[in-house]
Each structure stands twice: as C-alpha cells, then as structure tokens.
Amino acid sequence: MAKASQVSVGNFIKWNGELAQVIEFQHRTPGNLRAFYQGKFRILKTGKLAEYRFSPDEDVEILRVEVKEYQYLYQDGNSYVCMDNETYEQINVPRILFGEQIKFLQEGMAVLISLESENPVSVQIPTHVVLEVVYSEPGVKGDTANSPLKPATLEGGATLMIPLFVEQGEKIRVDTRTGEYVERVKS
Predict the structure, then answer these.
(1) Rounded to two decimals, what is the model's pTM?
(2) Residue 15 pairs with which residues in a beta bridge?
C-alpha cells in the first residue's frame, strides 16, 4: 500500500474493488481547508471515468503493470488475439480494452498491452495509422463555400470527414486519438 501523495498520472490503482488508470491527479489546498488530492481515473472494466478526493494520508493500492508490445492477429468473438513478438505466445484481449480506437485496428498492427499479473488491463494502438479510402462521393469543383469536407468510409469500416481533393482508393493518415484526417499519403 502507498499513500495518496505517491500516486501519479498513468499509475494503475485498485479503487472500490475495480482496476483503474489515473488520468489526472492534483494536489489542492483550498483556503482555510485541509489539503487533499483530486483524482480522475478511468475504470478499466467499463471504460467510464470517475473522480475521487483523497486525503494525503489515505492508503492507495498501486498495481505493478508491465507494458509489452504485441502484434494484433485476428478477432475471435468478443476478444482479439494478439501475439508476443518475442515468445510467440498468444493472448486474448477483451474488446472493451480497445475502446473507440478499435475501428482503426488492422491485422498485423503493433499494439502496446499493459498486463497486471498476466491479465491485460489496457491497450494502446499507434497514434497515427495509414488507411485506404474505400468509398467517398466525388468532390464537386468549386464547392468550397460551405464545407470543404466530405464523408468517407475507410478500410475496416471507420467513417470520417476528409477534404474534397481526396479520392476513393487513395491512402490517408488518421489520428487514432481524435479520429480525424491528418494528411494524404503518397504510395
């Protein structure tokens, strides 16, 4: 057990019997009141955000988490099979750990998986991926007065707004954190 003052952003803690990752953690001393720590974290099982106020001497269980690089292989029901690049062992990762980034996941992609006692607790895919535009309406020349963006469907099924000059069949770079178009990629 550790004290609340030893917790930092990125730590994995056990809170109310649930595994949670610390997103924000601030020390506050408001006026004449006693100091406290304000924590914001994501509950890994559900993906929901929670906030809690810790007293400085409150005990917090910080979990030891190992981060390893795996290669995504294929989907198996509600889980995704990933392979350790060093030992070639395969693990099943629950779909919920991928969150909204799942729509940008491709076979063979390298992913970072956080493990707590051999159980996956968090997954991070690369921040930028290159995907092909599978379908988009052709842009109308001179139609830049209202919105210079058009909807497009990418390989893997993700949809997002792209500039009018990007054609069907071209490859684009996408930011997986925001789900936004970054640039056109020359093949």
Answers:
(1) 0.72
(2) 18
